[in-house]
Amino acid sequence: MRSKMMGCREEHQSTHGSVLGGKPNHCVIYPPKSSIVAEELERRNNDWFVRTKVASDLMVQVGDFSFHLHKLAMVSKSGYLNRLVFAKRSEGHGHNGGSLKIVLDDLPGGTNTFESIVNFCYGFKVDVTATSIAPLYCAANFLEMSDDLHQGNLISKTEAFLSFAIFSSWKDTFKVLKSCESVSPWSKDLLIVKQCSDAIAWKASTDPKAFTLGQNSNGNLNVGESSDTWWFQDVSTLRIDHFIQVIESIKRKGVKPELVGSCIAHWTAKWFSGTTFVFDDPTIPKHLTQKLQRITIESLINMLPAEKNSVSCNFLLYLVKLGLKIQVNSELLSKLETRIASMLEQCRAQDLLVKNYGDKDTTYDAGIVIRVVKAYVLLALKNSRARLCIVGRLIDGYLTLIARDINLTLIDFKLLVDALPTNARSCDNNLYRAIDMYLKAHPSLMEEERASVCKAMEYHRLSEDARQHAMRNGRLPLKIVTEFMLLEQVKMTRSISASKSNINPRTTTQVIMKMNNKKCLEKGFIAPQKEIMLIRKEVENMKMQLNQLQMCKLKLQKQVQRSCIK
């Protein structure tokens, strides 16, 4: 497409696919006619020369390269160079036919971009793509190449193609945004990053079928991905500052908080391998890399959607783990733990599983769960017992998932068991199961250590089957088994005593019905004398049973004493 007003020919592909594939849109900028006739720009080692009949009177150094140019061609289109040349001449430089030297250390885009600018100033056509347009636009602004100096100058021409590249193609939007990484903060100040972010947000909030997506790096159509999450993969390639800008734009577009939270989790999974930041740049000192990691995690926490259930509990726990390792702001970490604590009543035990990655570590990180449970206890002081019991069941279920880990320390296991108040458990069956699994996986524990593990488990909160199993369990400490057996006897005694105390005038008929034979019941009456005899006999039977229980108790105590002596 040739535009007389822009002097720019755009050649673009119709497929707008993943960032990783396809050719970018292409534009050829035709500059105004130059005041100096030049044949070409040629390079000799680290020097660039303009082949022309006029001798060079200006040398511009950009990085390690020197450009031997002409003041007339350059200053006529650059306000910045014009001022520098005037200042140099005022200082007495360049008189007597000498060449002026200007050093451009901070030029956006460096040598490659300045080569394009020189071509433009001398009237040569300039090829630009979505990858090169942002640095060129920033450099044009740096050098003040506006239409005030020359009609159809470089700022206006690059601006036209920049807008086209950003809004016409999903692929090229990311090409432009990625190229902005090398020209910060110019790209931010000139709102290129904002324009790209707004374009991405608009397209992410639009049905992907509304525009062509093309193919991703695997050769598959992007439209084959989830209709809600198709944009995650490309957004996750952005570095943290650009990712933040994109997420802010996406939020303003009203994208569902759950999708925003999932996108943040997707980005984190791509940039963090376990707890290691995937940022391999040997030119950056180690202490700056650590600072970048801390800023990254803090930024991720701050950008999380505030809406309830917009982010999974498991991902938030992972952020806590990263935050603890990188030592992020303690107040920020505390707020994150409080947020997770408020979600515990809706969580499953599997949601609390966050992997460790060290060889000697536990499979899952119990420490972060302990922190969150403690935060929950502070929040739940006024909660009903029913709500506490929900979290109690959750933690007991979590204990059963991690109890077999041979690296799980006794301290961490006990901290998890004891983190909740005693009224947070209405049934100890899962707790008993977790304790039994832990003792089986840690057979070297001393008797006192095993007893301390079982301390939180209570007889009356176990089902009948669990009690019977516990009393036959050789892994439990002898003290606990003995205690349970005695309590079982007390229970039986109370049951018999309760039956005895129930014999009163109001319940005599019930006792008679239990003790009489079928024939007497059929007749519907019992002689008073016979009734008294039956009652006395039942009382005698109860006394005999009580005596037998007392004897069993004494024998059991003697056996326990002998075992202790051995």
UniProtKB/TrEMBL annotation:
Protein's UniProt keywords contain Methyltransferase: no
Top-level taxon in the UniProt lineage: Eukaryota
Pfam families: BTB, NPH3
SUPFAM superfamilies noted in UniProt: POZ domain
Database matches in Gene3D superfamilies: Potassium Channel Kv1.1, Chain A
NPH3 domain ranges (all copies): 229-491
PROSITE patterns attached to this UniProt entry: BTB, NPH3
Pathway: Protein modification; protein ubiquitination
GO biological process, one term: protein ubiquitination
Key words of the record: Ubl conjugation pathway
Domain BTB stretches: 56-130
Record bears the keyword Ligase: no
Family designation: Belongs to the NPH3 family.
PANTHER family the record matches: OS12G0117600 PROTEIN
Name under which the protein is recorded: NPH3 domain-containing protein
